[in-house]
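Dissemination and training. As part of the outreach component of the grant, students in the summer workshop were shown how a complex can be specified as a set of sequence lines and then modelled as a single object. The example used during the hands-on session is reproduced here so that future cohorts can follow it. Participants entered these lines:
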Amino acid sequence: MGEQQVVTVWGAGSWGTALALVLARSGRQVRLVARNDVQAELLNSSRENARYLPGIPLPANLHVMADPVVAMQGAAACVYALPCATVDSCLPLLADGDYPVIAACKGLHPQTLERTDQMFARHIAAQRIALLSGPSFAAEVARGQPTAITMAASDLAKAEAAAAFFDDTSFRIYSSDDLIGVAMGGALKNVIAIAAGMADGLGFGHNSVAAAVTRGLSEMARLTVACGGRYETLMGLSGLGDLVLTCTGTLSRNRRFGAEVARGAAAAAAVASIGQVVEGVRTAEAADRLAGHLGIELPLIQTVHRVLSGSVRLPDAVHVLMSRPERAE
Ligand SMILES: NC(=O)C1=CN([C@@H]2O[C@H](COP(=O)(O)OP(=O)(O)OC[C@H]3O[C@@H](n4cnc5c(N)ncnc54)[C@H](OP(=O)(O)O)[C@@H]3O)[C@@H](O)[C@H]2O)C=CC1
Ligand SMILES: O=C(CO)COP(=O)(O)O
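and obtained this result:
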């Protein structure tokens, strides 16, 4: 790969900026697409993303711009790091190219119940799509702290080709050909992180978080396998790895959101106070509905959705969960 290869990153929030920094450290010419000209100018002139990643300087080979069409001209790849809710409005602009599109967002669509690979495939030819997912808090990645993550595509060669755009020894990428497993792991761990945050907010101890991680992993695997993904993928970075990080790491927005709801905040107010995307809210609804369609029981995930939608109170939900008939593990 040439030193001057251009890679575009769409999304100047936490994750897009962090990935742009990794690509810049890898020697790429990076174009980071912000929401508008005002944001782009601010980031270019201050050389910092003060709102999302304060204190981390933007290097000279990272240029921020607002027009995604201009940003894609001559680019070898696009990394899509906007929230999942933007996919249908933004992705049509990437439909015509032949460069790979690396999806870095994590979630399920609450209406269509699609995974990220399916959401992207509605707009982009399937062979252009790769997914990047795994335990990776943006702030740590941005600071160059060691991170291991998974790149998935329809075959291993495509996943490796997508991974090759990143060439930073602090950012180690494993490849996978299980798009379904990687997409499901990244989406569902956010819902379990909300449950872990709720346990924290209720003042429960470490035991409840360990139970949420373990039973949550079991639910994630059940739904993933029913959707055609591989159990082994859920035991890797994009499943168990990201689940542990998000359920225990204080940087997790989904976990913090769960804790705030448990302390009495309304869901909308908790999202507003975090001030960044909390993907687990939409995914909880989607996963509950998907499980219903497939006839699968997911007690934790369904409880999170029912608490957030107001159909059950959290203390009652905990009682119901703990009173379920005992059964073999
Ligand atoms: N942060 C992390 O540690 C990680 C995040 N991810 C995933 O990456 C995805 C993005 O998350 P993250 O960067 O953290 O989110 P943030 O909330 O940090 O940033 C969201 C960005 O998206 C922009 N945005 C929101 N809505 C729109 C829209 N309709 N049109 C254009 N721009 C929009 C925001 O602009 P504005 O500032 O103007 O609102 C902001 O730049 C999520 O799916 C998340 O799960 C994955 C791994 C790690
Ligand atoms: O996905 C993430 C880390 O891998 C970030 O999780 P949160 O969105 O909960 O902060």
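Residues 180-323 form a domain with the N-(1-d-carboxylethyl)-l-norvaline Dehydrogenase; domain 2 fold (CATH 1.10.1040.10). Students were then asked to discuss how this feature might be tested experimentally.
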